[in-house]
Amino acid sequence: MNILIGDDHLLFREGLCRLLTQLSADATFTEAGTFNEALEFAQGEQEFDLILLDLQMPNWPGFSGIQEICEIQAGTPVVIVSASESQADVRAALDAGASGYIPKSSSVKIMLSALNLVFSGGIYVPPAAIHGESTAPAGGGGGVSSGGGGGGNTPALTQRQRDVLRCLREGKSNKQIAYELGLSEGTVKIHVTAVMRSLGVRNRTQAVIASADILP
């Protein structure tokens, strides 16, 4: 497994290298201390299996930089590992094509679980980015809520989450859902993750099956 780590703190990069050997004992690491270095490695002949990037490292061009690296290393999951836990940063990173966003405050167990989710084709969103939107005004940008109330075993989904689930049942992609509901793709990804958490499922197929008990 070839892994590219972009972070301006040497000590953190070294810590990640040691941590990631738990995912793959024979992993090889390429380290970059600036965004320009990370971009140069991504543009080289080496194909990576995973790319980890920090935000706001030297030469950071903004979230368009994530999109650029995603396009260059097409098919390679790009995961943000950042000290920022801002919902705006999470959304912007996902909009730019990131496959996950892991706060640096996360435990080792959470970080490994998040990366395993990414490798299985999922998208990791920190719980705070989901639950933190539960207080958003209704009818706004489509805040994500874990739901509440509602007796019995039926998961309590917001109307927006039901809309997203209905689109999933129709086999629509995140891009199609975003267009139909007037949301960004990043916001759709967050909604999909929240829906799967609420339903207790691990993928879209299981969510569609579970929808039979929820949607008319």
Annotation field: number of helices: 10
Number of DSSP E strands: 5
Shape: elongated
What is the C-level CATH assignment of the largest domain? Alpha Beta
Q: Number of folding domains?
A: 2
Mean pLDDT: 83
How would you describe what is shown here?
- The modification 4-aspartylphosphate is found at residue 54.
- Residues 138-153 have a biased composition (Gly residues).
- This is LuxR family two component transcriptional regulator.
- There is one protein chain.
- The chain has helices at residues 10-20, 35-43, 64-72, 87-95, 108-119, 127-131, 159-169, 174-181, 185-199, 204-210; strands at 2-6, 28-32, 50-53, 78-82, 100-103.
- It has 216 residues and is of the alpha/beta class.
- The protein has 2 domains: 2-129, Rossmann fold (3-Layer(aba) Sandwich), CATH 3.40.50.2300; 159-212, Winged helix-like DNA-binding domain superfamily/Winged helix DNA-binding domain (Arc Repressor Mutant, subunit A).
- A 5-stranded parallel beta sheet has the order 2-1-3-4-5, sandwiched between helices.
- Strand 3 (50-53), helix 3 (64-72) and strand 4 (78-82) form a beta-alpha-beta unit.
- Helix 4 (87-95) packs across helix 9, helix 7 (159-169) crosses helix 9 (185-199) and helix 9 crosses helix 10 (204-210).
